[in-house]
Amino acid sequence: MRRDLLALLRRPGAAFNSLAFFALVITLFPIGISPDPELLATIAPGLLWVAALLAALLSLDGMFRDDFADGTLEQLLLAAQPLPLMALAKVAVHWLTTGLPLALMAPVLGVMLSLPPGSYAVLVLSLALGSATLSVIGAIGAALTVGLSRGGVLLSLLVLPLYVPVLIFGAGAVQAAIAGTSVAAHLALLGALLAVSLVFAPWAIAASLRISLNG
Question: CA 67 to CA 206: how far, in whole Å?
Answer without folding.
Answer: 14
